[in-house]
Write a structure and sequence with these properties.
The structure is a single chain. By secondary structure, this protein is mainly α. The chain is built from nine helices and no strands. α7 packs across α9. The chain is elongated.
C-alpha cells in the first residue's frame, strides 16, 4: 500500500508566507512577526524561507530601523518647519538634536532652509491674521454691549490694547460716560 503524497502548501499558507516576507522586509523582526501572527518561531522562519526572504542579522535590523527612524524624524521636522513656520532652533528642540543636525535632517527630507527674514515674515503674517481675528471677535462683543474694561479683563489685555484692536477693526465707539458722582446742575444768574 502506497502512502499518500505530502499535502501541498495551501493558498492561505503562501499568502501568509508572502505577507510575512513583506513585513519582514519592511523592517519587522522575527519576534515581532511571531507576536503579530500567533505562529511559532520556527513556523515563521520556515514561511519566510519558503517565500524567499533574505534573512538578516540583528545589527542589520538595527541599522535599517535607525535609518527609518531618521527618515521619520526628518519628515516630522520638515512638517513643523514648513507648515508651522518653526525656526531651526525650535526644530532642534523638537528633535532633541543640534541646530546643525536639524538643518541637515530638514535638507534630507527635501526641505529648503529659509533666511531669518523669511521666517520673520511668515511669523508676522500668522500673528497679523490671529490679531485680526481677535479684533473682529472683540468688536462683535463690544457692539453687543460689553465694555472695554470688561473685554480687557476677559482677554487679559490692557485697556489700551483693547482700544487699539477695536480701532483696527473699525469699531464705532460709544460716547464716553462720566462714571463719577453726579454733579448738581449750574444755575445761571
Amino acid at each position: 500500500m502506497k502512502s499518500p503524497p505530502p499535502p501541498a502548501a495551501s493558498h492561505s499558507d503562501q499568502v501568509t508566507a508572502q505577507a510575512l516576507r513583506e513585513q519582514y522586509e519592511a523592517g519587522a523582526t522575527v519576534d515581532e512577526l511571531v507576536t503579530s501572527s500567533g505562529l511559532s518561531y520556527g513556523t515563521v522562519l520556515n514561511r519566510l524561507r519558503e517565500a524567499g526572504a533574505v534573512m538578516r542579522t540583528s545589527w542589520q535590523t538595527r541599522r535599517m530601523r535607525d535609518g527609518q527612524a531618521r527618515r521619520n524624524l526628518a519628515a516630522r521636522l520638515r512638517r513643523l518647519y514648513e507648515q508651522q513656520g518653526a525656526t531651526l532652533t525650535e526644530l532642534a528642540a523638537a528633535g532633541s538634536v543640534t541646530r546643525r543636525a536639524a538643518r541637515r535632517l530638514l535638507i534630507e527630507a527635501g526641505g529648503t532652509p529659509r533666511t531669518t527674514q523669511q521666517t520673520l515674515r511668515i511669523r508676522s503674517a500668522a500673528n497679523a491674521a490671529r490679531r485680526k481675528k481677535l479684533a473682529a471677535s472683540l468688536r462683535a462683543r463690544y457692539e453687543a454691549g460689553a465694555t472695554v474694561p470688561d473685554l480687557a479683563a476677559e482677554c487679559s489685555y490692557s485697556v489700551g490694547t483693547v482700544y487699539r484692536l477695536l480701532h483696527q477693526a473699525s469699531t464705532r465707539m460709544r460716547p464716553k460716560h462720566n462714571h463719577g458722582p453726579a454733579r448738581t446742575p449750574r444755575t445761571r444768574s
